[in-house]
From TrEMBL:
One of its GO terms (cellular component) is membrane. SUPFAM superfamilies: Rhomboid-like. The keyword NAD does not apply. Signal peptide: none annotated. The lineage of its organism: Eukaryota, Viridiplantae, Streptophyta, Embryophyta, Tracheophyta. The keyword Membrane applies. Residues 49-200 form the Peptidase S54 rhomboid domain. This is Peptidase S54 rhomboid domain-containing protein. It comes from the Eukaryota. It comes from Protea cynaroides.
């Protein structure tokens, strides 16, 4: 007999919480009938100031199969939390999840910018990426470097050697799921190698909390400036240079309303 699920949840607290958050967001989005175009990340919306989509796109999913596939892989990769003896562990997992979410999103936008501006591929201007697999591919890559003898278990019956899993999964998902975001998955792999090889290092509780604080501030002000959410307690007014805002905090007024703009898309990408 296998171990009770309860004990595995206790041993993977950060992974379990992430899966719960992604699942709760998916149920909320389905219940409110919110489309992925309203939460996903695209070059066009980023240029319009919707930088908050770097966060919302990572935790949103298009379908239940998309959610199940990503969360199944993430659950298997949660073994990272149990590897404190090799320099990983829960704190490492939490610290670098922040890095993976933000940097993989920034890399995707950077890739879109190059394809649009240098190669004139206008298709990528409005392609929208949604999903947590940028982070999944990042952890897959980190584990392949730190613990190459491990196995990646998917759906309880599929087992892949972790040392080859990042690029095997990159190729397979691109073939099996044509809508899968090749650039999104590749961005996760690049950030994953940067962390595993020590190119990105030095994250501790102080830097993680500081980074989280800046992410929250940037998220809130991006919501306000883009007009996606009415934050009545924040006022942003232009000063002498319109590009430099002055920020004032006001007493909270009436209830807040969510305003989602319809976005015409060329296509969507699963990440």
């Amino acid at each position: 007999m296998g171990r009770p699920l309860f004990y595995e949840i206790i041993e993977k607290p950060a992974t379990s919480c992430t899966i719960a958050i992604c699942s709760a967001i998916w149920f909320y989005v389905q219940r409110k009938n919110i489309g992925y175009a309203q939460l996903g990340l695209s070059y066009e919306t980023a240029m319009e100031g919707h930088h908050w989509r770097i966060i919302t796109s990572a935790f949103s999913h298009i379908s239940v199969l998309h959610l199940v596939f990503n969360m199944s892989a993430l659950w298997s990769l949660g073994v990272v939390e149990q590897m404190g003896h090799v320099g990983l562990g829960v704190e490492f997992y939490l610290h670098y999840t922040l890095v993976l979410v933000v940097l993989s999103g920034v890399l995707v936008l950077g890739a879109y910018h190059i394809l649009i501006q240098k190669f004139k591929l206008e298709y990528f201007r409005r392609v929208t990426a949604v999903g947590y697999s940028c982070v999944v591919f990042g952890w897959m890559t980190i584990l392949s470097v730190k613990q190459p003898s491990s196995k990646l278990q998917l759906f309880g019956f599929l087992s892949l050697p972790i040392s080859f899993a990042p690029f095997e999964s990159l190729i397979l998902t691109s073939i099996i799921v044509p809508q899968a975001s090749f650039l999104g998955h590749l961005s996760g792999i690049i950030v994953g190698y940067s962390i595993a090889w020590g190119l990105i290092y030095g994250m501790d509780n102080y830097w993680a909390i500081s980074m989280l604080g800046w992410i929250v501030l940037a998220f809130v002000f991006s919501l306000k400036r883009s007009g996606a959410f009415d934050l009545s307690f924040i006022e942003i007014e232009p000063v002498t240079d319109p590009s430099l805002p002055s920020v004032g905090f006001l007493a909270s007024g009436n209830g807040r309303t969510l305003q989602m703009d319809e976005l015409p898309l060329v296509g969507g990408e699963l990440v």
